[in-house]
Amino acid sequence: MRLRNKPGAKETILNHPEYILTDASDWRGQWQKRFEKTQPIHIEVGSGKGQFIVEMAKANPEINYIGIELQTNAIISILEKQLEEKLPNLQLLLVNGADLTDYFADSEVDLVYLNFSDPWPKTRHEKRRLTYHTFLKTYETIAKPKAELHFKTDNQGLFEYSLASVTWYGMTLKRVWLDLHHSDYEGNIMTEYEEKFSQKGQPIYRLEAVFHEKDKA
């Protein structure tokens, strides 16, 4: 989805380093210091306008959340929400999700969310999919042993690809939903895309997968 340019977005971001960073390399391994309390860290790669990450932070004060987004015109919407809410357990990061090992230390993250990622349907763009094996390797590096990956999409092709990708990578599938909104799953918090697609009657797919215990050197 193409987003409109928001006048002054870059300036607003630079004026609020207490909530958002454009380069977090200095905070690698130190993320807990940016939160009010030391708690499990959950990250969302590709947070869009932030409805999911903001509502998750409000609903789960015992967890620290980091929303990661590459587009300035998207993350500014999350920052605007945070400036209103001032949630002590929410931080934002304006960076490329492919470079997460530059900003997070090994085993620093407890859970990774991927919500309605770009499907990149053409085969030549496979490496850009956020469940491609190089991305999974990145998540595994920054995640704690046996950390989980939670993934939601409306795109059946991407979901089938992701099921295969996490399995081939060696992850353990914990749970799978082929029609989330008509299941017994409780506590679902929707993204903006999820609301849009579900209103059209499209099924929402979801999976939870677990990284294996890391080898001890």
Overall description:
The protein has helices spanning 9-14, 51-59, 72-85, 133-142, 156-169, 192-199; strands spanning 20-21, 41-45, 64-69, 90-94, 109-115, 143-153, 172-177, 205-210. The chain is of the alpha/beta class. It is globular. An 8-stranded mixed sheet has the order 1-4-3-2-5-6-8-7, sandwiched between helices. The model has no long low-confidence stretch (mean pLDDT 94).
Examine the coordinates and then state which fold CATH places here, giving the name of the CATH topology: Rossmann fold
| Full CATH superfamily name | Vaccinia Virus protein VP39
- The secondary-structure class comes to alpha/beta
Secondary-structure element order, N to C: HEEHEHEEHEHEHE
Strand content: 15-25%
Q: Residue share in helices? A: 25-40%
Rg, nearest Å: 17 Å
Which descriptor suits the 3D outline? globular
Mean pLDDT: 94
* CATH uppermost class: Alpha Beta
Instruction: Report the sheet with the most strands, covering strand number, pairing sense and barrel closure.
Output: 8 strands, mixed
User: How many structural domains in the coordinates?
Assistant: 1
- What is the strand tally? 8
| Uncertain segments | none
Number of helices: 6
What assembly state would you assign to the polypeptide chains in this entry? single chain
Architecture, according to CATH? Answer: 3-Layer(aba) Sandwich
Strand order of the largest sheet: 1-4-3-2-5-6-8-7
Keywords: Methyltransferase, S-adenosyl-L-methionine, Transferase, tRNA processing
Organism: Vagococcus carniphilus
Catalytic activity: guanosine(46) in tRNA + S-adenosyl-L-methionine = N(7)-methylguanosine(46) in tRNA + S-adenosyl-L-homocysteine
GO molecular function: tRNA (guanine(46)-N7)-methyltransferase activity
